[in-house]
Fold:
Amino acid sequence: MVQWLSDDEQETWQAYVRLRQRLDAALAAGLAGDGLSPADYELLVALSAAPEDCLRAKELAAEVCWEKSRLSKHLARMATRGLVDRRPAADDARGIIVRLTPAGRRAIERAAPNHVQLVRKLFIEPMTAGEAEAVRSLADKVVPEAERVTDVGTA
Structure:
C-alpha cells in the first residue's frame, strides 16, 4: 500500500520541484548566452576537471549520471562543433576516450565566469550559512540513496 505524501510533505516536494525547474531554466538561459547548453556545460566541466582533459566514455557517463546512448549522441553533436574529440582507447579497442579540445577549453573558460556569477546570485547569496549547511546535509543523505536506486557509480 502506498503511503501518500501528507499536505506538508507534498508542499515541500512541490517547492523543491519548482526550485529545480526555475533554477535549471535560469541557468540554461545564462549558458545559452555563451553558446552552450546545460548538457554541454556539464560534460565540459567533467572533462576539464579530469587528468589531461580526458576520460573514458564509460567514466564520463558515470560522472554525469547519463546513459550510454544519451552520452554518445550528445558527444557526437559536441564533436561536430569541435568541443570534444573521441578516439578508441589504446588499451581496449571497445573503449572510447573523450578529450576536451582547445575549442572546448575556450568554451568552458568563456562560460564559467558567467555561470558561476549566476549560480552565486540565484542560489548561494539568498541562503544563510545555516541554510547552506542544511542543503549540504540533505545532499549527503539523499545522494547515496539515489545512487543505490540508480546504480550510479557502479558502472
The radius of gyration is 18 Å. The longest helix spans residues 7-32. The domain at 14-143 is CATH 1.10.10.10 (Arc Repressor Mutant, subunit A).
